[in-house]
Amino acid sequence: MRRSLLPLAAALITLALAERPARPCAAVAEAGRTIEIADETAIIVWDDAHKVEHFIRTASFSASAGVDDFGFLVPTPTRPELGEVRLELLDRLHAAVTAERVVEVRSFRLGCGLPLPGMARAPASVEEPRVRVLEQARIAGYEAAVLDADSATALAEWLERNDYASRPDLAAWLAPYVAAGWKVTAFRFRPSVEGVFPTAAVLLSFAAERPFFPYREPADATPGSARSLRIYLVAGGKMTGSLGERGERWPGRLEYAGRLPGLRRMLAGVLPDGALPDRPWLMSFVDLSRTRPPGDLFFSPAADAAPFAIPIEVEDRCTIPLGLLAPAALIGLLGLGLRRRRARRSARVASG
Questions:
Q1: In principle, which of 5, 42, 87, 345 could form an S-S bond with 57, CB 3.0–4.6 Å?
Q2: pLDDT given for residue 227 in this prediction
Q3: Which of 320, 17, 242, 331 is nearest to 5 (CA)?
Q4: Residue 195: how many CB atoms within 10 A of its CB?
């Protein structure tokens, strides 16, 4: 049976466990079977005091019958510690940010109803190019292998020998990470029951000079259907994102930045003690790009340190029952008649 790929994200490059490589955002298995990303979410917690990034990510997707194995790669500047996080954390965080952005707009209507509510280059190896498996583990329903390679070609060959599809554009995608001495974690999901997919988010903790998201796509990536990337960044202050070492513009949009009430409580037990800054900020970004511009995504302190929120307007309608209109109109007419009678009386007194 031919195996197929779930391209979990173009940013976290996907690999097919198949005879032929697939492209990000849509994979085709035999007999027209497909699997597509609906949306992707990541939480980045930046521990500036220790220069450690805690990276949590997940994706939702739809698949036709017959899709079983899939995999993806995550590059990190240093060897990561692997873990998993329950998906409820992302739901709670999204609900809290949404609540902070809600702005109530009051309106009135008539009716009878009720009111409505940087990469540093590593020294070249003098040994024969090889791949070292630093760790193997079962994480969040995935088989994970942390890899350190001397060359992108050797890494691509290792992936192919271990049932990951390989192609020239994949080796080219890997090349700058391997040249810089980065590690690559390969995740593979093999469900014990067909149609049962991961129910937890992957957590990688690793040393870094600055917070980043692996955004870069391979050259043969093709635009797919509509997709969304949402990134929650927790740091000691307001931050902004840019692409590559030269700081090119990132199309992601900031939706919220501020000290979210209850943030510490939500992250309690998820991260090591001391990982959160004393007064953490939360930034919420969304990127709806079908085709991503080149470069990985790096975050740095924002020039504007003011809190920010794009409002979500919720209309609070106030219904005036029609039954009250007749008495109100009668009272208004009586008041108008009395004012006119007083005006005529005053005019007669003045003329007399």
A1: 42
A2: 75
A3: 17
A4: 10
